[in-house]
Amino acid sequence: MPTKVRSTAETRERILTAACEVIAEAGFEKIRMRMVAERAGVSTALLHYHFDTREKLFTEAMTHSFAHTALDAERDVDTAPAAVVLARILRNLLPTDPELHQDWRLWQELWARALRDETTRAFAVDLYAQLHAWVAGAVRRGIESGEFTPTDVDDLSTLVLSLSDGYGIRLMLRDPTVTLDRALTAIWRHVAAALGLPETLPET
After folding, report:
1. What is the mean pLDDT of residues 119-147?
2. In what residue span(s) does the HTH tetR-type domain sit (predicted)?
């Protein structure tokens, strides 16, 4: 990759990482482009060169966040057991570590904004379609390899996302009646029943 192209890509990466952090900390409605520029260590002029509006920066930050989450979960996807890959995805759909906790704050900002803005609503629906495809792809690979019992893939994927959202919100609220282990176990129980797998969540 040419040096200039690599430098531009690295700058965008730094800006998007900073945007994720600032939006998660302050909320979308309170952020200013200057705040992101300062966190990224770039000028506001350079930030505006890459992202001319807050809205574009927000949508790119959400896409960036999702892409990194998917990349982590699907490492060794061609060699790892299908159940392990699916368990990784499930863990990445919940606020299981500080980085994913930050991602969940971004999703909460997205939900709130989508209720008031049609463009953001359409973007949120598209992101959910990508999440659905991510889960469905892992399930289909397991069925095709013979590791999973055939099932209605779309129905199971929708169930997984719905349960993850529900438990994830309770975890973000620090609801004392819901723990991470309990959430993972409950969701995996439904997955295991549908796919003919042991009820014990695989180590990832």
Report:
1. 94
2. 9-69
